[in-house]
UniProtKB/TrEMBL annotation:
Gene3D superfamilies: Alanine racemase, Lyase, Ornithine Decarboxylase, Chain A, domain 1. The lineage of its organism: Bacteria, Bacillati, Actinomycetota, Actinomycetes, Motilibacterales. GO terms for molecular function: catalytic activity. Signal peptide: none annotated. Residues 14-128 form the Alanine racemase N-terminal domain. This is Alanine racemase.
Amino acid sequence: MPLTLHVDAAAWRAHLAEVLDANPGLVPVIKGNGYGFGVARLAAEARRLRVPTVAVGVPAEVSLVRQNFDGDIVVLEPWHPALSAPRFDDPRVIRTLAHPEAVAALAGTNHRVLVELRTAMQRHGFLPPLPTGRVRSEGYALHLPLEGDGVAEAERTLRAAGVSEGPVWVSHLLGKRLAELRRRVPGVELRPRVGTALWLGDRSSFRARSTVIDVHELPRGTKVGYRQHRMIKPGYLLVLAGGTAHGIALEAPKPVPSLEARAKVLATGTLGAAGLTLSPFTIDGRQRWFAEPPHMQVSLVLLAQDATPPAIGDEVPVEVRMTTATFDRVELV
């Protein structure tokens, strides 16, 4: 009962090459669920692109990437001696440091590190003055917020820290903004770390499809699902591949900066309180309602009686959040 990601390999790879060519020094980020494609697959793609370095989120992701990629691997999560012993015996791995205790613990060793500077993100990093311990630094790292002027924030952070040369590994800057930062800090070698804009930048090159597992035509009043809710109208109950284990209908909190966005959240919450939740599945040209919350591996979806039901084995479109989705199968065609 597969939930499948269909990928137009030629179009997807053309996009990857375009982003790489437009942003010299690019470091692909491969972390979490591999942006829906899987960590191993993205590591192999990075090897095919012949980039010298990739970045992972946490140390546990290094081993899987290492099996499929031959270059250096940066770990974005800062290391701290309170979290683990400093056993960095892989010469291909570069760890990030963001605390004085970490610098002190690694002073005089041959471990490769990046020193992270604190930006307006306020997540990790040193504030000036910078640490003075002798470490084998591969440069500085900047993690920039998505909102605001990232170029100005990066320039401010570097100048405040007195960094005017050497490698600087920077997130969330590409294209014209990256070129502008290069113009403002000409002595710095910028290494843009890129995840979403690289792997997910061309949405037209991939699509998620759910396999129809079962179709039932039911009269009004029929009880369905775990919670035995009644069908309020006659119609079809569809059993579709994809549930909570795949990330179906799982959402992170969203920013709601405008009145329109708040109105949509309010309307969605009101419908949810009434037991009505729109599913991410599209059948016969329309997005359809859940019969109840998704199960672990399948979802129950309602289809009106006047609609044309799919057949068992058909595939129907499903909208997913790629950074939380796990597919049964990824097909490059």
